[in-house]
Amino acid sequence: MFEVPLSQQIKGLHDDLYDVGFAQSDEVGGGIVSEPAWSDALMVAVPARHPLLANKCIPLEEVLRYPLVLCDVQACEGCARQIDRVLRRVDMEPPIAERTSSFDLMMALVSAGFALGLAGAAHIAASREQGVVARPLASRVPPLTTYLLRLVGEPSDVLTRFIERVGHRVTGIPQAYAEPRS
């Protein structure tokens, strides 16, 4: 498995380079089936000594009082779109200080106290940054959904077994991954 941008993943599926892919977008165009694979709670990544940590659940309006570091739209297209939909629920302009091309950089900036981040619970939990604490949002927001992508048509027996295993075992694979063609 290896990470590729969503546009390259879609092209790779159409060009028969990949059997299957994972993305946080179901907007993939014709010829590709997009099936929800798993969901992950959207959380606030907070620096370890931040005043918002007094809250067990943080209201989105409070989050928007502080600078944010978010995924870059080009690098994390689906995730960025899902988070932008949540941010549009509030009648406030989000104070985006930085958009990063990697989740690791986002967590490093949060740990350094530069900004708050918004990401999936599994990503934050798996982060190697010691100075980051995850808190849920107080308002009910949709989870971040990861989709399994494949070409339209009857999947092979091997691909069918893989899809079945995804439904039972996979939790928290980041953004857009693709499985090379066998």
Fraction in beta strands:
25-35%
**Total number of distinct structural domains:** 2
Largest sheet: 5 strands, antiparallel
Amount of helix: 25-40%
Overall, the morphology is: elongated
Textual characterization of the structure:
The chain is α+β, with helices and mostly antiparallel strands. The protein has two domains: 2-39 and 143-180, no CATH class; 42-136, 3-Layer(aba) Sandwich (D-Maltodextrin-Binding Protein, domain 2), CATH 3.40.190. The chain has helices spanning 6-14, 60-63, 77-87, 103-111, 121-126, 157-169, and strands at residues 2-3, 18-23, 32-40, 42-47, 68-71, 96-100, 116-120, 132-136, 144-151, 177-180. It has a five-stranded antiparallel sheet with strand order 1-10-2-9-3, sandwiched between helices. The chain has a five-stranded mixed sheet with strand order 6-5-7-4-8, sandwiched between helices. α3 (77-87) links the parallel β5 (68-71) and β6 (96-100). 30% of the residues are buried. The model is unreliable at 170-182 (pLDDT under 50).
